[in-house]
Design brief:
The chain has about 240 residues and is of the alpha+beta class. The chain is about 30% helix and about 35% strand. The protein contains seven helices and eleven strands. The protein is elongated.
Amino acid sequence: MGDSQDWAAVPGVAERARSVLAAAWSCTVTADGGREEFVGAHTVTDDGRVLLRVPEDSALLAAAICAPRGEPCAVLEFADVAPVPVRQRIRARLWIAGWFAVEDGLLAFRATRVVLRQPSGAELVDRDEFTAAASDPLALAEAGLLTHLADAHPDAVERLTRLVDPDSLHAVTRVQPLAVDRHGLTLRIERARAHGDVRLPFHTPADTVAQLTERMHVLLTQASAAGCPRALQRQRADGDR
């Protein structure tokens, strides 16, 4: 179930795909040699190539060495998991199809097709745009930022709901920070049998953690000037009984 809050500036699909790739800690590789999962084994070059460190007994390595052309095809899958516990934590999945070859002891993967699937649906990412795009500057810091916000400042999360359309808070049971990027903060609005996401855009993009702190202070100041939503007032009253 979606919510009616307007979404202002959001990352482009190529930037979002590169952010998923930059922040992912694990990946699953499917190739002729089988299907293997690797944790903490890949790095990403500036042009979006994936370099994978694999064990010497890996079926993928054997496939690369034995392939007639030396470049077997494969599909890499990356999952974007919300750092804060919420219902349906997978925020996006990224699939990269292409070829890989052995380079300096690593498997170097060159993409021929890139697909990003988000709750809004799957999109084919233009390869040139994917190569040229940079990940969101907050991508690597996002997990720590969101968990700190949820664990240390739940009062701030509640205050931010004052910026949400009251219709989106109908029958709310819990609100958690779901995502943050240079353009804004996303809240997950959970209900007993459904959930929705609401975007709170920043007044201007944040390219550093220091700038993000300032943008969050602006949102909180705006929220303080607004009244507490009736839905949360009722929830708070029920919890005090």
